[in-house]
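Fold sample X.
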Amino acid sequence: MSPAGCPHVNGFKVDNWKQNLRVIYQCFVWSGSAETRKRKAKSCICHMCGAHLNRLHSCLSCVFFGCFTKKHIHEHAKNKRHNLGVGEKYSTWEPTKRELELLRHNPKRRKITTNCTIGLRGLINLGNTCFMNCIVQALTHTPLLRDFFLSDRHKCEMQSNSCLVCEMSQLFQEFYSGHRSPHIPFRLLHLVWTHARHLAGYEQQDAHEFLIAALDVLHRHCKDDNGKKANNPNNCNCIIDQIFTGGLQSDVTCQVCHGVSTTIDPFWDISLDLPGSSTPFWPLSPGGDGSTLNGESHLSGATTLTDCLRRFTRPEHLGSSAKIKCSGCHSYQESTKQLTMKKLPIVACFHLKRFEHSAKLRRKIPTYVSFPLELDMTPFMASSKESRMNGQYQQSVDVFNNDNKYSLFAVVNHQGTLESGHYTTFIRQHKDQWFKCDDAVITKASIKDVLDSEGYLLFYHKQFLEYE
């Protein structure tokens, strides 16, 4: 490209566009006096709906202001053929036919290099808020969530300044704006305190509890904009449920008549027990024979994520003290219960239960759990239940079945004790580029750093997505 800029832009320019830009800048950008600030406040409104927010844009061909969110600036550009404008933060316009033709002939318009750090930005700790910062880092690097918020697809029907989805949308804009200085998430913290009062205050909170509370509030504030039938057990088509909701199948089998009662419940995450907790941990490693599953070796004797998932989905005898009324026997009988995955979410979050709270015990469980970069959930599906024999899983996995395969993209860690600790996050950029996010400080990390970390919350993304 020449120093004069893109030659194709000249076809859209009007003769006086520089003068128009200068007037806009003098009157509405640089407001040095009280008079100009007052004039700006009165004049900077959408000429179609009267709103002074919604990412206001100005036409460079005439005196017109239009909001981007409600696409009033788009309507003006289309009707008047005024194709150039400036916005409060962006100059983002829907492409014209000519622009689309240019893009078709030049498909590679931007090169993302291996050392690109788009979207990486530190977060200021506002007083024991590392629990919030680490989850924000994980959410802002969730690919489909990022695409949703950067495409202005949220249509808010709540009162201004009270919608968490609007704040998250603004947060994504801040993260991907190119600014490198740490962001101060004070508005997000205020909304969390407003909508999840059990998290209010400056005490250290649990990152897992914050994640579930944030997803719950986002789910309640989201609106189904596309009107399509939900394809998840929650019967909701908001972006949160599209990405995070899976279906957990519970099969209760009567020990007398062997009748099975099945229920399916939605879940946003899977909480897994660890060895060393007061809950007995079933030794599941395949007898030290060197076999592997999901690329995890059992030779070292370390507990693996697969071990935890096996324990989670094993049949459990409920005992005589927890008899359930059988619909076949019409009486209370002993039974077994088994959990499996009926439907997998796009993003699978695994919560390793490191904090133990009981009447006699409050402690952190530091047991190291090995977790893989790539995870195959096929052995834990309800459809794979018939292939299990006496609680043992078949080691042969169909290498051509990629529907249930996941890739790791974020790991939340907790350092310290139950009373005094700190949260950090490992984030994946591109394929094998990892960064450690420690509040305002972001540093390069290796894959070994990630896999050697203790692990508290593990975020996996499906490798292949279905679409309609």
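Fold sample Y, listed below.
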Amino acid sequence: MDFDERARPELTGLRASGDRVGVSGMSDGTADQLYFALRVAAIEECLGKAPGLPFVADDLFVNFDDARAVAGLEVLAMLARRTQVLFFTHHRHLVGLAERAFRGRLRAVEL
């Protein structure tokens, strides 16, 4: 099938029920989790081919609950073993969660 305007690709998620949902039908937190996963996958793909550029995250977990934020920060901690991770936030509680996730390998700077 040739690409045309009627057959534009669309990013969708799959619910536990098996139903598909478009990004516009997702909560802000779920959409942020999806985009975070795609960004990490893209950077990991690039790291396998060339020296890494820093991964810059600006208030990446603002729509995550604490459990999901910790999981995301642990992913960033693993990524930080391969490339520089710069995480900006104005949410103080995320700094504490990051300190736990990075297990002493975090340098926090408060402005």
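Sample Y note: The beta strands are 12-14, 20-22, 55-58, 85-88.
Also: The chain has one domain: 5-102.
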